[in-house]
Amino acid sequence: MRKKVGVFWFTNDLRVEDNQLLKRAAQEVDQLICLYCMPRFSEYLQHFSLETRFGESRQRFLHQSIAELDEILHQCGQHLVVTDEHPFTALVTLIKSDDVTHIYCDDFASYDEQLVVEHLQCYFPLVEIVQREQRTLLCRQQLPFHLEDLPASFSKFRKQVEKLAIDLPVDAELALPPPCSHSLSTVEVPSLSVSSHDQFVGGERFALAHVSCYFASSFASHYKQTRNELDGMEFSTKFSPWLAVGCISPKQIIGMLRQYEQRNGSNDSTYWIYFELLWREYFQWYAAKYGKQLFHFAGILGKAPLTTFYPQRFKQWVNGNTVYPLVNACMNQLRETGYMSNRGRQLVASCLVHELGIDWRYGAAYFESQLIDYDVGSNWGNWQYIAGVGASKTPRRFDQAKQMQIYDPQGEFVQRWGGNRGKINTDSVDMVDWPIRA
Ligand SMILES: Cc1cc2nc3c(=O)[nH]c(=O)nc-3n(C[C@H](O)[C@H](O)[C@H](O)COP(=O)(O)OP(=O)(O)OC[C@H]3O[C@@H](n4cnc5c(N)ncnc54)[C@H](O)[C@@H]3O)c2cc1C
């Protein structure tokens, strides 16, 4: 009988716990190649972010996550094959030269990865491609509507799904089929270096440690009152970086949240953590439904905003050098750490679109290049939302001065992140090109 050779294509599911697909692969194939393709800095991203590579924090967090996955796979008799090749090229090489019979991968929300699967299916109909939702609370069949009928607003979505039962996470598969030789060109798995400056350390064990620590404290019981603060590990959960690369699954988090509620009681705040995870869930399905439209200027509503591109203003925004101190501080924090609070993201996005008049895609692309918790649906979906071309027809515009009074009345956050080093004027010339004196 022909030997069954599987490829497990890891993407944003860098874990062995609650990995139902890996369990299935372990039961079905004789040999397994665990593959990871390094993310590429696409031309689209270069064009809109004006960067040439991912930010240091984002790269570091990802490298840590990959290195840790490789270590855990070794304990299961496996290792991670890491390549710089495009996923399509890598998978075609493995199918053609290494007799791969099965491919296992996420049921992607992202358009590019789903396209890879569709092309593979076309060119290699005899290869069995097994997909499963690895990043959501619910799977497609559990949704109470067809994906094409995804509600147009988050509130309608939430009302339909929030009472549904969520499957329990599954235990890790500790014995994986043996690896096999392959003909792929690979790169070294980065070494797991952790520095004392790292606020966030990538990897499955760090994810579990962080979430366990969060629920061992009483933060969850006050979450609703504190989540809008701009800085500080205890104010919001900070689950997003690990969720984004899949070092932990949302089901594992819900499991731990329910245990916390059993021990300490549930309240508005513990519910609100679930509520926010439902926002994430919404944007995952939103990305799956809208595909390419996620990146269109006119968004999913087909309504082009009255914005354009001003290179000088964009540069000021990126470098934390605008006339808005809070925006500057948030942008400096993002550049230095790869993270920004939800309130900060709303403020800087609103500023880019509504104060600086810039096409929202430039901001979204810059975020993609820097955020350690970059997630295609959550990022592009939220940007569309603020620009008024997505899950709400009403653009979200924040009054920058008022927000500063509410969230940083003493100016401590601005001080900490150097937000006062900005410009006095947004532009160096006026509307008829005369220089403006500072
Ligand atoms: C312009 C903009 C871009 C964003 N880009 C991303 C992104 O690339 N990746 C990302 O994970 N989140 C993104 N968000 C959502 C949100 O800002 C972050 O999820 C949150 O700040 C992460 O911090 P936390 O884990 O402490 O969140 P908490 O407040 O503790 O929330 C708990 C979890 O709920 C989810 N969540 C909370 N708010 C949202 C939201 N508005 N949309 C989707 N999920 C949410 C996250 O998974 C988060 O970890 C973006 C928001 C805006 C306004």
UniProtKB/TrEMBL annotation:
The keyword Protein biosynthesis does not apply. Keywords: Chromophore, FAD, Flavoprotein. Binds 1 FAD per subunit. Gene3D superfamilies: 1.25.40.80, DNA Cyclobutane Dipyrimidine Photolyase, subunit A, domain 3 (1.10.579.10), HUPs (3.40.50.620). Residues 4-137 form the Photolyase/cryptochrome alpha/beta domain. Its cofactor is FAD; (6R)-5,10-methylene-5,6,7,8-tetrahydrofolate. May have a photoreceptor function. Belongs to the DNA photolyase class-1 family. This is Cryptochrome DASH. It comes from Vibrio panuliri. The lineage of its organism: Bacteria, Pseudomonadati, Pseudomonadota, Gammaproteobacteria, Vibrionales.
